[in-house]
Amino acid sequence: MIFSDAFLFVIGLIDVGAVLFLLIYFIITLSDLECDYLNAQQCCSKLNMWVIPKLSAQAVFTFFLLIHGKWMLLLLNLPMTAWLIYELSTVPMGNTGVYDPTEIHNRGQLKRHMRDCMISLGFYLLLFFVYLYCMIISLLQGNPLKGTDEYVTEF
């Protein structure tokens, strides 16, 4: 193991918290596009900039779970990692990224992107509370009230 379990889950909480803020940014930006506060070029360039960091945050923490042998949490994270890789790998040639300004208003892609962001937001909210629970359990595995005996003096 590289980290202790508590530190692993603290890293997970920070990772998931950052992705949650990023997804809220995605939802706000997509809703600004839907309400015509942004044009498609601005919206897509803002969102495409954060696609790779979102994927790498998910993939790195999934790798940490693999190294530490947290199999249930790994199985919980693998579908989202696979979905993000699939989403990035199926970008057609000639598009600027996952969010393409020329196609975002075609065939309901804006609604699909908004739906995907909402599903991801729910998934990461669930993960946040699961990691918080796991962190608390890993901190309480020992007896925190007992302490070490080397500093106790008896009279």
Secondary structure layout plus pairing:
Blueprint: H1 5-34, H2 40-48, H3 51-68, H4 71-89, H5 109-139
Helix pairs in contact: 1-2, 1-3, 1-5, 3-4
Plain-language structure description:
The chain starts with a helix and ends in a 16-residue tail after the last helix. The protein contains five helices and no strands. It has helices at residues 5-34, 40-48, 51-68, 71-89, 109-139. The chain is 69% helix and 0% strand. With 155 residues, the chain is an all-alpha fold. It is elongated and about 55 Å long. The relative contact order is 0.17.
Task: Count the E strands.
Answer: 0
* Major pleated sheet: none
Unreliable spans are none
Derived structural class:
mainly alpha
Q: Give the mean pLDDT.
A: 90
Strand content: under 5%
Helix-strand topology string: HHHHH
The number of helices is 5
Radius of gyration: 20 Å
Helix content: 55-70%
Instruction: Categorize the overall geometry.
Output: elongated
